[in-house]
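Q: I'm building a small set of examples for a reading group on sequence design. Run inverse folding on the following structure and report the sequence directly after it, with nothing in between.
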């Protein structure tokens, strides 16, 4: 009854639990890192640099129409106008034709998002904006690929170290700049006043976070409405925050721990969907990167177009405490607080995506037994709602 997996996020690695602590610059080479108090602050700093570079009286930033409202907060703080680009049908990517037609002389930056950890199509976006001076920002808050995976493609790359992220230090963010010139253009917040709470205070908070995000205790923070876990809110950014220097000391160990984690859970979910052979469940990582290896995901995203099937799947996964999530419940124009800003903006594909999405956890707390239960939920949902493919599922439906 109390068992409830968190939908995403890894425990904080407390240095000392982990032996190697390389230099941060070395970890991100050849990109040049700068650190902030959050990814939203890091993105705002990046967009201020983009505005200074392109110089137009009415700067605009292109964003995907489905995503984290923090993107809008960063654009508005930087003094630009956010312009939404609809998604490609049933994909987590911006529609490239929509992107082409949204470009204009006021466009200073395009922000692509590695939603759930699935890489955006940066090479194609770069081709579209080549020769314009527009800055390509890769928002990788939901992914933290290794340099050797060749997924670092933006002029600037944003990482988040907030709760529920691939590397969680409870808060914090970074921008990687492609070269020194781009790095020097970033505004840095004044160094934080000495609020040094001391390593022991941070260690205490990290241990509490790790404890409360365990599957047997997560029901506690999840049930506290003021924490708003899983809720989608728009919050204006009021200042660019500096990184906490003590948390930065923990970053190398946490990044290394993340890069060493395996991807066996996402492979298992991919296999479940393959064996189920029910085309009402769209395996997004499978269709977005059918040939290439999918990088490590933050969450495993699936689209379920039939609302009844989706609800049954949620009910089953929810009863078993398997950490399924419906992500952002609407496209950005439907987020409370953003209706007026985007009034009249139509993004039919982003709306459709928001009605279909289901994500499953793939973090290190997901056990083999949980994967087995996910398999059972898929099989039960598929058979109880009539698998139209009827290709002879090989799924074991025993619980
Ligand atoms: C894609 C994306 N960008 C930016 C952010 C903002 O991150 P932070 O909470 O570190 O400001 C988030 C937060 O979830 C996100 O998902």
């Amino acid at each position: 009854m109390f068992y409830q997996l968190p939908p995403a996020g890894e425990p904080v690695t407390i240095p000392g639990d982990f032996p190697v602590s390389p230099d941060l610059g070395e970890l991100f080479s050849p990109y040049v890192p700068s650190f902030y108090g959050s990814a939203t602050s890091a993105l705002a700093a990046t967009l201020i640099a983009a505005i200074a570079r392109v110089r137009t009286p009415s700067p605009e930033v292109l964003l995907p129409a489905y995503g984290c409202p923090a993107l809008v907060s960063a654009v508005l703080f930087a003094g630009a106008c956010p312009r939404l680009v609809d998604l490609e049908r049933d994909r987590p990517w911006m529609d490239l034709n929509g992107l082409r037609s949204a470009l204009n002389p006021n466009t200073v930056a395009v922000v692509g998002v590695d939603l759930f950890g699935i890489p955006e199509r940066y090479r194609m976006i770069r081709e579209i904006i080549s020769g314009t001076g527009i800055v390509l920002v890769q928002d990788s808050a939901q992914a933290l690929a290794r340099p050797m995976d060749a997924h670092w493609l933006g002029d600037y790359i944003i990482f988040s170290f907030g709760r529920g992220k691939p590397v969680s230090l409870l808060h914090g963010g970074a921008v990687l700049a492609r070269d020194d010139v781009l790095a020097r253009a970033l505004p840095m917040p004044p160094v934080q006043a000495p609020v040094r709470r001391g390593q022991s205070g941070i260690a205490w908070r990290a241990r509490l976070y790790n404890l409360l995000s365990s599957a047997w205790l997560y029901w506690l923070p999840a049930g506290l409405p003021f924490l708003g876990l899983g809720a989608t809110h728009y919050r204006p950014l009021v200042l660019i925050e500096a990184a906490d220097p003590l948390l930065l000391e923990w970053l190398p160990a946490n990044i290394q721990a993340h890069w060493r984690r395996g991807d066996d859970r996402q492979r298992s979910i991919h296999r479940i969907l393959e064996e189920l052979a029910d085309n009402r469940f769209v395996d997004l990582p499978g269709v977005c990167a059918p040939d290439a290896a999918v990088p490590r995901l933050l969450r495993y995203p699936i689209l379920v177009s039939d609302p009844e099937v989706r609800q049954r799947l949620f009910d089953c996964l929810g009863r078993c405490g398997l950490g399924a999530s419906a992500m952002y419940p609407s496209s950005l124009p439907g987020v409370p607080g953003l209706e007026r800003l985007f009034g009249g903006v139509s993004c039919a594909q982003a709306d459709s995506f928001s009605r279909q999405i289901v994500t499953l956890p793939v973090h290190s707390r997901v056990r083999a037994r949980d994967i087995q239960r996910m398999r059972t939920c898929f099989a039960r949902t598929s058979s109880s709602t009539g698998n139209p493919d009827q290709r002879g599922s090989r799924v074991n439906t025993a619980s």
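Confidence is low (pLDDT under 50) at residues 391-399.
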